Amino acid sequence: MMVQRELVRRAVIAHGVGTAADLADYFRTPIHQARLRIAELVASGELCEVRVETWREPAWLHRDAPAGGDECRGPAVAL
Predict the structure, then answer these.
(1) Residues in Cβ contact with 55 at an 8 Å cutoff, skipping those fewer than 6 apart
(2) In 3-state terms, what secondary structure has residue 38?
(3) Where are the alpha helices (DSSP H) in the chain?
(4) What's the rounded Cα separation, in Å, for the pair 14 and 26?
């Protein structure tokens, strides 16, 4: 499980922002396992949920992303 958590962490850093499906697919992690690891990373404060205007699913952003710290606390707009 620690390995899967690290894979999800690396996937979100590589993507910048991504849905659970995006993050799972990066290292071919089963989606249900990726969702569990995402929940753990959210609980630890490493990831935050964000909304992308035209996406149907919530997305995830790492706290160390360029806008991550502020993004996790309030709205932001990016291209």
Answers:
(1) 19
(2) helix
(3) 2-15, 20-26, 31-43, 68-71
(4) 9
What is the per-residue pLDDT for 69? 54
User: What does the pLDDT profile of the chain (79 residues) look like in tens digits?
Assistant: 899 999 999 999 999 899 999 999 999 999 999 999 999 999 999 999 998 889 999 999 998 877 555 556 555 555 4
How many alpha carbons fall within 13 Å on the CB side of residue 23?
Answer: 32
Q: Are 23 and 38 in contact (CB under 8 A)?
A: yes
CATH number of 2-68, picked from 2.40.160.10, 1.10.530.10, 3.40.50.300, 1.10.10.10? 1.10.10.10
